[in-house]
Design a protein that fits this description.
With 128 residues, the protein is mostly helical. The chain has seven helices and two strands.
Length: 128
């Protein structure tokens, strides 16, 4: 847990009436996401913009489409390039690909960013 997550956890305990609830229940009652989920949400929006949006030209160098007709879930699977260093886990593409490939078809097939955000809210609502 990083420092910001710790601060959010502590701040939600200071709200009267929510002290006795778990962190997840406090977030649910306040209609908030954990910072980890908000970070993931932002990364997936950026990936959408690289894959289908205004940064598509730059995204062609970052992501490669999976060339297979056997993909389950969504049809817009991407694969990770090969890196020889242990630092590969820190790269944006490495963090996003696994999560992007697990998104439902209705999220990935969104034609516009607004539609993606609304459908991603529903898809990520069960995560805490």
């Amino acid at each position: 847990m990083d420092l910001l997550e710790y601060v959010q956890r502590r701040a939600t305990t200071m709200i009267k009436g929510l002290e006795h609830l778990s962190y997840e229940e406090r977030l649910r009652d306040l209609w908030l996401f954990s910072l980890e989920k908000r970070r993931l949400w932002g990364h997936l929006i950026a990936a959408f913009q690289y894959l289908k949006g205004p940064y598509k030209k730059a995204g062609e160098r970052l992501f490669m489409r999976a060339c297979s007709d056997r993909t389950r879930g969504n049809d817009f699977k991407v694969i990770v390039g090969r890196f020889g260093l242990a630092i590969q886990k820190k790269f944006f593409t490495m963090r996003v690909v696994r999560r992007w490939n697990r998104l439902p078809r209705e999220v990935v097939d969104a034609p516009l960013l607004g539609v993606l955000k609304a459908s991603m809210d529903r898809a990520l609502s069960n995560l805490v």
